[in-house]
Amino acid sequence: MSEADDFFENLPLWRTSHEMALSVYAILEAEPFLSRPGLRHEIEMRTLQVTGQIAESTAHGGYDDMLRHLHAARGGGHALVSLLKMVAHLPGASEMDDALQTATGHAQACSGELKEWIGRLQQEQARQMAPQSSNVSIPPPSR
Q: Which pTM does this prediction carry?
């Protein structure tokens, strides 16, 4: 794999999402997930959406594609946080309270970082699209 192919692995944002994924997968072998395969699947999909969309955002050249992927990752992160908070109220969840709080905290941190990245990219895009001021002085028309 070339350096360009694994560029996303060097991004602090992707590393945050990777830590999030590890903390989420650490809880998926416990109850209440064993008796709820659909819930487990949905949490896995949202986790993969976040990490995958962040990686995908680096494979495209334009701001629009990058922003689209980062917004999709952020949406997945919000859905993941919602699911994990719901899980905290299910029977059997109290046995994994610390691990569940850790996973939820990682998902919230990742969503927060995504919001910052999106904001910075949008500011950069606006800055580049703004008309450039010129130091050239145009004399007034002569009479």
A: 0.83
Is 141 exposed, middle or buried, given 0-12, 13-18 or 19+ CB atoms closer than 10 A?
A: exposed
- What is the CB neighbour count within 10 angstroms for residue 31? 13
Dump pLDDT digits (tens) for 90-101.
Answer: 988 988 999 999
3-state secondary structure 104-140: HHHHHHHHHHHHHHHHHHHHHHHHHHCCCCCCCCCCC
Q: How far is the C-alpha of 57 from the C-alpha of 67, rounded, in Å?
A: 7
Q: Using the structure block, give the residue that is written with the tokens 């309270």.
A: 97
Report whether 23 contacts 106 (CB < 8 A): yes
